[in-house]
Amino acid sequence: MNDLENVLYAVLDARFQKYGREGIGLRFLLRAVLAYMRTMETNTLDVGCRTFALALGQHHSTVARLLRRLAQLSDGMVTKIADGRHRNADVYLIELPEQHRELARDLCWRQGKIHAIRAVFRVLGPTAALAYEAIERGRVSPTVKEIAQHARIGASTAERALAEMSALGMIHRDQDKRWQITHTANLTQLAQRLGADQDVAAQLTVHREQRRRWHDWLDRHSPSHQLTEADLYDPETDEYWPPPGLYTDSAALWTIPTAC
After folding, report:
1. Segment 188-219, tens digit of pLDDT
2. Burial class (CB in 10 A: 0-12, 13-18, 19+), 167
3. C-alpha distances out from residue 23 to 14, 101, 127, 259, Å
4. In contact, 50 and 62? CB cutoff 8 Å
5. pLDDT (0 to 100) of residue 225
6. 119 and 111 in contact (C-beta within 8 Å)?
7. Which of 241, 233, 251 is nearest to 45 (CA)?
8. 30-72 pLDDT, tens per residue?
């Protein structure tokens, strides 16, 4: 798992950067995939597009398109192995590409959680999420230039994101003008203050209604199958996977080995 994250940060982030806005979507989709793998302890991805749409704050059709692109551009890290049918989603296999194995194992994994789009960044935007991640994962407190470099975003974009997060009390700059996370800031409470939790709830409500209509259609065309309550609302299947950090700052879902 750590090797996959190493390849993401060292190889694929740089590749996706050249694809502009789509590239940012690919970067966070792959983060969501790896977060799902780590949480569920599986390398088989068999959840619906709406699950990742909720994790990313995107429309499910956008996620479907990005998943296809991710399979094309990830050097075999993400491979589709089965088509979705009826209530079952497409199935993807996640594995370390052969050509990157030596590099991945030579790199020192940086301890820390991997996130999709945390709720607060639905409001602040994905470039702010990348800048925050660059500070969070840094071995030392970074400068603006280093944040832009590590996040692979423009310097002016980084400056705007840092100014906005600083104004909200999420980060602060020390006497050497290096940025640090303000650990007393509660991202969950801040997301609620900015209305992001309402956005998440509204999206989940839409997904439930869409799924109900789809199941109704399937039931009409397959009378032998009777729906159960779990078909509609079971959070352990494909309806809703709460990505770590979406609602809470707790690390309870994570089991992460010690980094070097």
Report:
1. 999 999 999 999 999 988 988 888 887 777 77
2. exposed
3. 9, 23, 12, 28
4. no
5. 55
6. no
7. 241
8. 999 999 988 888 899 888 888 899 999 999 999 999 999 999 9
Cα–Cα separations (whole angstroms), residue 127 to 23, 25, 31, 117, 169: 12, 11, 14, 10, 17
Mean pLDDT of 161-182: 96
Residue 175, judged by CB atoms within 10 A of its CB (0-12, 13-18, 19+), counts as: exposed
CA distance 36 to 56: 12
Highest mean pLDDT among 36-40, 107-111, 166-170: 166-170
Asked whether 56 and 63 are in contact (CB, 8 A), the reply is: yes
If you search the block for the tokens 């309402």, which residue do you land on?
A: 198
In the numeric block, which tokens belong to residue 237?
A: 């299947």
Contact present, 124 and 161 (Cβ < 8 Å): yes
Best CA proximity match to 14, nearest among 115, 103, 105: 103
